[in-house]
């Protein structure tokens, strides 16, 4: 009926009564049709018309009814979409929207509430937090809990289906389905379309380089809180400040040290090893390696031995590497001169103890010879001359009685005799590195200080800000405050003043220059020859000490062999420390496991590989000049009018007492020489 | 259409006499149904457990067949409509009875008969044919003095009531009752009787509420939407809220994936999320237009059979659209009912096509007095 108006009712309506019959134009009158006719309407017809009228009225009502109904739907639609829309609460939607509306920033900073990432000095990520989700269920919204458990199992293999089904059928309103699922798994679970399944954003700590610096980085617990290493020490900083935490470590250097250390450890079948590379001027640690190690992503399952950080937590007697300190303190206080000679011919007998040299020269040695041949007797005599008071003061200044201050909660506190029990024998044995246990970091720091001109530094794992200003985002306020503040869990020692990081050198510049020459001498003429790298003027000191037995005393056939070095000696830049725990000699070393045989070559290889990376190039052209500037004769000329022989503390206040004791000792030594030598554990170190 | 008004071929006469605006509106609904099927199909295909391609193909085929049925049935003369409806009513009644014996039980109700490839729901077809048959019986009882048409219609209605109650299909029962009551109302039945019918429906509703746990929970959920078990309606309202004025865009719906019945009972919510208020308002307007236009055209109609048949058919159509949309919008308690041409489902599409084909056939322009 979309066409023109249909004939409709017009045809049925009666014409007006006064109408005249209509006829076509020109037609005869007879042809006219009458304008009025009588129509008979029957009773049923009238009834039908009345019924139709009634129906029309009701049709109209029906139409109005439908308009009301649809109008209500339209109003409700406006209410649901425009006036009071219910926003979906699913985090999925919110996150999709967030990602869609924001420009994509770099991966690490994209997620605002993440634990901050940790990166090396060059920006290489070491620890990052990845987006994951927790899946939980509200069983009350579920239609079929068994079916839901079965579907979830199909996309989440870690789910225990019977257990989950049981939980879903009994629990009230909250059931964990799985934690820390990947975005891919989250999408798969979402695609199942199970009602009552929800997601909670979470994150997982990921260590992209696996074993790299695992003990330094430490780990986090299931709630992303640090439980070890940097993660624990900087826990608050990492949670509060989303900016990446930049460490001083250089993954390239770290990898090389790891590589060489592992090779040496395998070659000599050592049970453990530690390696450190440090900037001697800033204290920044470029590499801290401890072996055995583990994959940082598997922190929870790593054995305790692998989690143990030998470089920061391991306490070892430093052995002969400590003779550099003895020489430095003696020279700096003027107690000895470089041209003095010390008695290395006779063993020192002290009470029940006898001090000897391993492969001794059995003659008086000049100071440079004491270092080059690593004479225990010479070092003991020198320490004796310095005396306990000055020795302890020096060691305290060098930070040997405090934690090293590195940003690791595991950093260990040294073991040493208290002042009341620091006997003359202690002074002598500490002179060649026995009777005190320190961490490798302590030794590296002290060696760096005597080589760098006496500038105190604090080993740090944080990259130095370019301006040198402390990082305002870091909880570390100042090096002094953070590094040497008394430990909260241990009472501070009253007599020991914390060493202060000074701008002024801790020693005379001349002393440092002599120590540099002595360190160089060890590599050119002493036991450290295998660490030599042409053009890099390596200097160092070997140290082989017997391990302290867990039962007291020393283990006769277990050594800790270490080599501490600094290069280039003409302008010190980096310290390299390599230590092997219980190495076994093999045919290539003549079955020796001493530091010069096992640790020094590894240190040399490390230096040869890392120096170019660190922007240092071998200086061959100036070799003659540099060699001359670092030259140190093994037997320096004695100035006219001076006596080289110096075995007693002629310049100290305790001359008299010391002289008498010296006589007594000589007498006892003669008596012991007749009987059997009993080299007792405490003083029986072979040191080279 | 190139057909001239003087074209007297079957197609030409059909084109010029059919209600072309309503035809266009129906075609629009079918087209929108196709779009909504694309939106709902990925998750629904997975849920139903069919390959998505097959799923799409089947629904496309049903929608196309639906349009052919609309056009084909609209070419019938009123007399043939009546014959077809009587035949259809008998077949559908028989099949509906058979569902009780050989029906496939889905979600606790036996409404479907499985055929190879798909299942049909005979009661869907019973609804339009019964509307036409009832209209004929009532109109005939008015034309012939001693013909007890209304009584026969009531008896038929009672049989259908029993069958639908046995399935059970309370939604269909409600629609058929409302349609029959509307026909009696338009047919001029005493308002007292109409009131009695309404009271009967209300009482029936209370009876269901009292005896049927399923109905009771639905009503309770509607009355207390903050209670726990209103997952679907929560999600549906979130979908509308997420859509806003213009919607998220085709295929961009996110809440729809969490709507268990996104393809059928809650397809309107999916439309709300993806296309927004304006498009949904247009859909409501199209349904309203079809119903109201048909009813208004009846005002010029003289044939009581046509008046009753068409008013019954469009009541069924409009009521079903209303119940679906109002359920999704939480205007009334949720009642599983398809949105004509837009919800997924073969039976629904074909039955609706039959219904609208009947409407178009009966409202074609005719010279008065032509036999019905």
Task: Give short descriptive properties of this protein.
heterodimer, A: 688 residues, alpha+beta, 5-stranded mixed beta sheet, 5-stranded antiparallel beta sheet, disordered C terminus, B: 372 residues, mainly alpha, 3-stranded antiparallel beta sheet, 13 helices, 3 strands, 3% strand, globular
Structural class of chain B: mainly alpha
How far apart are the first and last residues' alpha carbons of chain B, in Å?
28 Å
Biggest sheet, spatial arrangement of strands of chain B = 1-2-3
Domains of chain B, number = 1
Lay out the secondary structure.
The complex is a heterodimer of chains A (688) and B (372).
Chain A: H1 43-83, H2 91-101, E1 118-119, E2 125-137, H3 145-155, H4 161-170, E3 175-181, H5 183-192, E4 197-206, H6 214-217, E5 219-220, E6 226-228, H7 229-233, H8 235-240, E7 245-246, H9 251-267, E8 272-279, E9 285-291, H10 304-307, H11 323-332, E10 341-343, E11 348-350, E12 353-355, E13 364-366, H12 367-372, H13 376-386, H14 388-397, H15 424-431, H16 440-451, H17 479-484, H18 509-525, E14 539-548, E15 554-567, E16 574-581, H19 595-613, H20 623-629, H21 655-674
Parallel strand pairs in A: 1-7
Antiparallel strand pairs in A: 1-2, 2-3, 2-4, 5-6, 8-9, 8-16, 10-13, 11-12, 14-15, 15-16
Chain B: H1 10-17, H2 20-48, H3 52-74, H4 78-102, E1 104-106, E2 109-115, E3 118-120, H5 122-143, H6 149-166, H7 170-186, H8 191-211, H9 213-223, H10 231-243, H11 267-297, H12 304-328, H13 346-362
Antiparallel strand pairs in B: 1-2, 2-3
Helix pairs in contact in B: 2-3, 2-11, 3-13, 4-5, 4-6, 5-6, 5-7, 5-12, 5-13, 6-7, 7-8, 7-12, 8-9, 10-11, 11-12, 12-13
